[in-house]
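[[Local backbone shapes]]
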Amino acid sequence: MKKYNVYGIGNALVDLEFKINDSFISEHNIGKGLMTLVDEETQNRLIGAIDHNNTVRKSGGSAANSMIAISQFGGKTYYSCKVSNDEFGDFYLADLKDSGVASNLDIQKREDGITGKCLVMITEDAERTMNTFLGITTDLSVREVDESAIKDSEYIYLEGYLVASPSALEAMKLSKKIADENGVKTSITLSDPSIVRAFRSEFRDVIGASVDLLFCNEEEARVYTGASDLRTAREELKKDAKRFVITMGKNGAMIYDGDTFIDIEPYQVRAVDTNGAGDMFAGAFLYGITHGHGFAGSGKLASLASSKVVSQYGPRLKWHEVQHVLNSLQ
């Protein structure tokens, strides 16, 4: 019996979530619906221009959100990341602990610097736009990789955003190498279409011969494979992933279980905030397949969980919602 269901590695970011309108997007020339890397000065300028009522602050980063989701459902997770010895770093570590996620931060001394922050802007159409200052997580490297925790996990989960940093890219490769050599299953998320477009060759370097499980949305699948349509893209993905999940927003999801394609029906909800929907889907799905629920059952669980997330503000479920999702398995 492994100690952890999933070992994740990713950018540790404190999410600062605000509600805005489209005029703010236009006025500040922000790429709507995308994750854009910015410098600290730009991020601070945007934060200063936003009405700070109803600000939500959470420990975040894509892989962190997924690890926390697994923990909420009752799974065991470990998260490798990098934050600094500052107030935001203190907050991040405390929030991870409160969420039941083990971490290298529990045993490693934190360095001086600036903890990364992600400005999450939610418009009235529920679209989420992210401007991210990575701070010290830019320096995430092989030093943050915990070999013993990887060996004691069923799966590793690699956050695609890490390919943008040369040192983090090496950490991804090392994590996969350790997993491959020790019979630990590998999974990766492509994270964002713009990241896939800019770092397609780096993704291929990490994936290597194959990964056990790949997560992406429709656009990421097309960009990664170079296909013009989803049907072609899914056939191309078979060359790099033994199994994969393609999320399709309001149209549900498509799962390839290694033999057949499984269509996952969506749950109809009124979306108010799409931030964290993909992270929740991946987390719930990984919880499901590591707890004996199969690919179809795990897909239904993930679809329900992500529908709950988009119908509220913030990337996490409330306790009663976790129980509702888990009850759907019975």
Remarks:
- The chain has a mean pLDDT of 91.
